[in-house]
Design brief:
The protein has 5 helices and 5 strands; from the N terminus they run E-E-E-E-H-E-H-H-H-H. It is mostly helical. The chain folds into 2 domains: 45 residues, no CATH class; 108 residues. The strands form 2 sheets. A 3-stranded antiparallel beta sheet has the order 2-1-5. Strands 3-4 form a two-stranded antiparallel ribbon. Helix 2 packs antiparallel against helix 5. The protein is rod-shaped.
Length: 172
């Protein structure tokens, strides 16, 4: 560990210098240029215990925790969006299809015998007797993925605001 020495200035301020700065010139906060003495001269200056000089942190534990929480929220939010958004895009065709128009087109192409078979099937099983309609399922899935994507975006925004709040609150 390098030993530091205090170089006094005429203004009353003392600057920390070490042996590597011997013979150079350093500026003081008052604006004066101080000449650092030679190695022999540096040894005659008062020593500073580097370990005793505390490095003040600008962050309180609360700010550190806020920053960490914000970072976690951003990462989780991005993960949720990355999961939901591609699935939402894949489910979009169900939202754009006019179900009744599609059924009308299908029924227009059926022969009378096929229409009678379809009618018997509806009479026997009901309109939804064989499970959920694929259009309804597609719309429900699309709604779930839209909600998932919105929640992910909200988490990302809240996390970002938390990070900015922790950084702005840091002492200067």
């Amino acid at each position: 560990m390098a030993v530091k020495h205090l170089l006094p200035c005429g203004c009353g301020e003392s600057l920390q210098v070490d042996a590597s700065q011997a013979g150079s010139t350093i500026p003081c906060v008052c604006g004066r240029e101080l000449e650092v003495p030679t190695l022999r001269g540096i040894r005659e200056l008062a020593e500073v215990d580097v370990a005793s000089v505390s490095s003040k942190t600008n962050w309180s534990p609360l700010q550190g925790a806020s920053f960490t929480l914000g970072l976690v929220l951003v990462v989780v939010g991005i993960g949720v969006v990355a999961y939901g958004y591609p699935r939402l895009r894949a489910a979009q065709p169900y939202m754009e299809i006019d179900e009744h128009k599609l059924y009308d087109e299908i029924l227009a192409d059926l022969t009378p015998g096929e229409l009678y078979d379809a009618w018997k099937e509806v009479r026997e099983f009901g309109l939804n007797g064989r499970g959920q309609n694929e259009f309804v399922m597609g719309r429900k899935f699309s709604a779930r993925m839209k909600t998932t994507t919105i929640v992910g975006l909200a988490l990302t925004v809240v996390g970002g605001i938390t990070i900015v709040g922790a950084m702005v609150g840091a002492k200067r």
